[in-house]
Design brief:
Elements (H helix, E strand, L loop, with lengths): L2 H11 L6 E2 H9 L1 H6 L5 H9 L3 E3 L4 E4 L11 E2 L2 H9 L7 E2 L1 H10 L1
Parallel strand pairs: 4-5
Antiparallel strand pairs: 1-3, 2-3
Helix pairs in contact: 1-2
C-alpha cells in the first residue's frame, strides 16, 4: 500500500461497520489543503482498493473496509495487544489469537 492507501485504510479501520462517502474520506485523510484543491482526490485510490478487495462499496459511492474472510481465521479470536502480551508471557501456546498486526498483514497481502 502506498501512503494515501494506508491513510485511508487506518481511517476506515476505526469505522469498520459504517459506509463513508468519498468526500468525507477525502476531507478526513488528505488534509484541509488537499481537500480544498481537489475534493474528490480519493476517488481513484478508493476504486483501486475496492478492485484489490480491501474495500467494499454500497453502490452509492460510500466505502468501508471489507471484513476478513472467515475461513482464514477459523478458530481464532481477536485480542488487544496488551492481553496478547500477557497471554504470550504466560508461556502457554495461544496460536489462535489474532492481533491488530495480524489484521494489518492480511490487508497488506491484498
Amino acid at each position: 500500500m502506498n501512503a494515501e492507501e494506508r491513510d485511508i485504510y487506518y481511517y476506515l479501520k476505526a469505522r469498520r461497520r459504517e459506509f463513508i462517502g468519498i468526500r468525507e474520506i477525502s476531507r478526513r485523510t488528505g488534509g484541509k489543503r488537499k481537500s480544498r484543491v481537489n475534493p474528490d482526490w480519493a476517488r481513484p485510490v478508493l476504486m483501486g482498493m475496492a478492485e484489490r478487495g480491501i474495500l467494499e462499496s454500497d453502490g452509492e459511492e460510500r466505502y468501508r473496509l471489507k471484513p476478513m474472510v472467515q475461513q482464514e481465521t477459523k478458530g481464532k479470536r481477536w485480542a488487544s495487544p496488551e492481553i496478547s502480551k500477557l497471554l504470550k508471557a504466560s508461556g502457554k501456546d495461544f496460536h489462535n489469537v489474532i492481533t491488530p498486526e495480524d489484521e494489518d498483514e492480511y490487508y497488506d497481502k491484498l
